[in-house]
Amino acid sequence: MTATTKAQVPLRRMGLFDLVAAGATFMAPAFSLAAIFPDIALTGGSYAFVGVLLGALAAVLVALSFAEMSRHHLKAGGAYAIVGGEISPIAGFAAGWGLTILYLLGPAIPLLLAVSSLAIIFPTLVGVLVPVTIAVALAVFVVNALGLKPSTRIAFLFFVAEAAILVLISAILFAHPAQPVPAVTGGLNILNAVGYSAIFTVFLFLGFESVTTFSEEAEVPSRDVAKGTVYAIAIAAVIYIVSALALTRAVPQANWGLGFTGGLSTVLGPNWDLPLAIVILTSSMGALIAVENTCARLFFAMGRDGMLPPQLSQLFGKGRAPVVTLGVSAAVTAGFVVWSESTTGPLAAPVGLVLNLLPSMLTLGALVAYFLVSLSALLRTRREGLWRNALVPLGGVLVTGLLIGIQFDPSSILFSSSVLLGMAVWYGMGALLLLASYILSSKGPESTQAVPNLGRLPD
Predict the structure, then answer these.
(1) Per-residue confidence (pLDDT) for residue 98, from 0 to 100
(2) Quick one: pLDDT at residue 451?
(3) Residue 459 CB burial class (10 angstroms; 0-12, 13-18, ≥19)
(4) Domain contains 459
(5) What is the pTM of this model?
(6) Domain that holds residue 210
(7) HEC string of the chain?
(8) Beta bridge pairs of residue 321
(9) HEC assignment per residue over 385-412
(10) The domain spanning residue 139 has which CATH number?
(11) Has residue 454 been placed in a domain?
(12) Regions of the chain with pLDDT less than 50
């Protein structure tokens, strides 16, 4: 385990506005709706809107737990630092590694959507999608290497553009005649319809917790990280609820399976195909910048604490950006997308890897982390005797535990042996990395230094 050096101390340049911008941009309303809207609509039917509200409630409960715990744990790493400080370092690693599916592999979803949108806008790119994928990933890396604050400002411009277009689309859809919606689709009862659409809704909010990974770069972390988390999820919740209501109201049920852009085209007409491609592109680019920044800060914290190779904790340039981890994130994202498009040969990727299997894995991994953070907050209220504050974390524990249980229930339509196998493999890889990092650090010249403190640090 290595001690903190000057090269491992980030710059405190993030104000409240920047933290809110980072969290809201990560959630990327347009790209998230494009990826998950058909699932919410088809499983929820006319109850999809109720499912969205329930999923939003789950996200808000967990966000409030994150916000409260961020006041006591001022280290980089978010859930990793919070759970590690309240329960144990191994539990912290479990929470952090669960989120690495979202932070390290998750960017493949917006990258694939960005490249697909570029191919719609510029049809000549269809034959060269691999170079385009690499070029987009490289461009995002260069932007993030400038430092957290400037890259966040650039990403926020993408967010403003997508939000404006989504508000415009929602207004047009509300002016459109309402379409009849079946009570429930797929033979599901009301509880299943609401529950399943709520789980899919959690996907929309993934990333609100990213604000807590920037605690060491916030100017006033004990105040602004908590506020930034709550404000970011509130902004996204308003956009999602309005958009979900507008979509399920105006798009005919027969066209839900066409997806976000396909369903909207049946209502708005083919002239909207290009604007919709542009909004997905802008949303995806903003999300790529935000997610890879978050991934870099989590890996930075875990590398500095010896949970991952220490090289990941090095900062470079005037903005002290974790360039190594940013490079790892960009390379893995691009490689994952290129592999996902490989459909032939012995190493061919599973069908639907990025847009089907991956979303289920990263949602489950995030729910595990959310459960552990809510549990950490609940345990803290118990230790401090503040039972009046236990309702929110208790709600987070119960709701996230329920949503996790549904995905492990063999009778659930969301149960997938492929997802569970993928999670087992992912956590197995994490255990091997943790073991290798421990062995390497114990053999180094700094092996006698203090083990990492994952608990509370002074502001």
Answers:
(1) 94
(2) 40
(3) exposed
(4) no
(5) 0.88
(6) 6-443
(7) CCCCCHHHCCCCCECHHHHHHHHHHHHCHHHHHHHHHHHHHHHHHHHHHHHHHHHHHHHHHHHHHHHHHHCCCCCCCCHHHHHHHHCCHHHHHHHHHHHHHHHHHCCHHHHHHHHHHHHHHCHHHHHHHHHHHHHHHHHHHHHHHCCHHHHHHHHHHHHHHHHHHHHHHHHHHHHCCCCCCCCCCCCCCHHHHHHHHHHHHHHHHCCHHHHHHHHHHECCHHHHHHHHHHHHHHHHHHHHHHHHHHHHHHCCHHHHHHHHHHHHHHHHCHHHHHHHHHHHHHHHHHHHHHHHHHHHHHHHHHHHCCCCCHHHHCCECCCCECHHHHHHHHHHHHHHHHHHCCCCCCCCCCCCHHHHHHHHHHHHHHHHHHHHHHHHHHHHHHHHCCHHHCHHHHHHHHHHHHHHHHHHCCCCCCCCHHHHHHHHHHHHHHHHHHHHHHHHHHHCCCCCCCCCCCCCCCC
(8) 316
(9) CCHHHCHHHHHHHHHHHHHHHHHHCCCC
(10) 1.20.1740.10
(11) no
(12) 1-2, 187, 444-459
Domain count of the fold of the chain: 1
Q: How far apart are CA 11 and CA 256, in angstroms?
A: 46
Report whether 73 contacts 455 (CB < 8 A).
Answer: yes
Note the residue count of the chain: 459
Token pair of 386 as six digits: 């503040």
Q: What confidence score (pLDDT) does residue 183 get?
A: 57
Residue at 105 is within a domain: yes
Closest of 202, 207, 228 to residue 399, by C-alpha: 202
Q: Which amino acid is at 314?
A: Q
Q: How far apart are CA 206 and CA 240, in angstroms?
A: 13
| CA end-to-end distance (rounded Å), the chain | 23
Pair of tokens at residue 107: 């960017």
What the block records as the tokens of 185 is 């689709």
The reply to whether 374 falls in a domain is yes
Query: What is the pLDDT, as a whole number, of residue 454?
Result: 37
Contacts of residue 86, defined as CB under 8 A and 6 or more positions apart, other chains included, come to 69, 73, 376, 377, 379, 380
**Residue type for position 451:** V
Residue 1 confidence (pLDDT): 41
